Amino acid sequence: VFPSLAQAQASVANEVYQELGQPSVFLFCPTEYCSSLCSPSPSQSCYLQIIGQELLPGIGVIWTGPKVVSQELSAALLEEVEGVLRRRPVIWDNLYANDYDCRRVFLGPYMGRAPGLMSRLHGLLLNPNCELQANFIPVHTLGTWFRSELGSCAHPDHAGTEAVAALGDSQGAQDGSYSPQEALELALRDWVAEINQQALEPGR
């Protein structure tokens, strides 16, 4: 019926989206959802070009970055993806995901994301560790990153660029930019306080 997989997927997604009354949040995960799955690149992928052309503009498209689990996200990559999809992507961030390896637990801060990414995103979803208690630092530091991004949006003259510092650098509380190290220290302080409070509860 359809000349390509992309056209089939876009047609079905569009029909479901319209049948549901075009909800404000409707996400589509493409078969090529990261750069490493694209051939030869996101901007030259025939599949993504068709998805960008055929998918209704109100539908959000999920993207994980250069890889399924991306250590870094750059503004340049997001600009390329936005160009081919004709919309800003929704990042499905697998930085902390460990459902594929139960021996892996990531307790570090949210990092490796270039400053000033907020304006290039339609949204961001965090795929956490499977172990609930292991996600205090990931969620806490993501909140700190989010607040710093909001601050950059409110004060464009303070918005970071990739040339300012290497990704993950611990600079910048004084200039309003995100510091993974400082975010980690804040998260650890609050986590210890919560653990101490729980330890005082009856039955603990």
Automatic annotation (TrEMBL):
GO terms for molecular function: beta-N-acetylglucosaminidase activity. InterPro entries: GH (IPR017853), Glycosyl_Hydrolase_84 (IPR051822), O-GlcNAcase_cat (IPR011496). It comes from the Eukaryota. PROSITE patterns: GH84 (PS52009). Residues 1-150 form the GH84 domain. SUPFAM superfamilies: (Trans)glycosidases (SSF51445). GO terms for biological process: glycoprotein metabolic process. PANTHER family: O-GLCNACASE, PROTEIN O-GLCNACASE-LIKE. This is OGA GlcNAcase. It comes from Pomatostomus ruficeps. The gene is Mgea5_0.
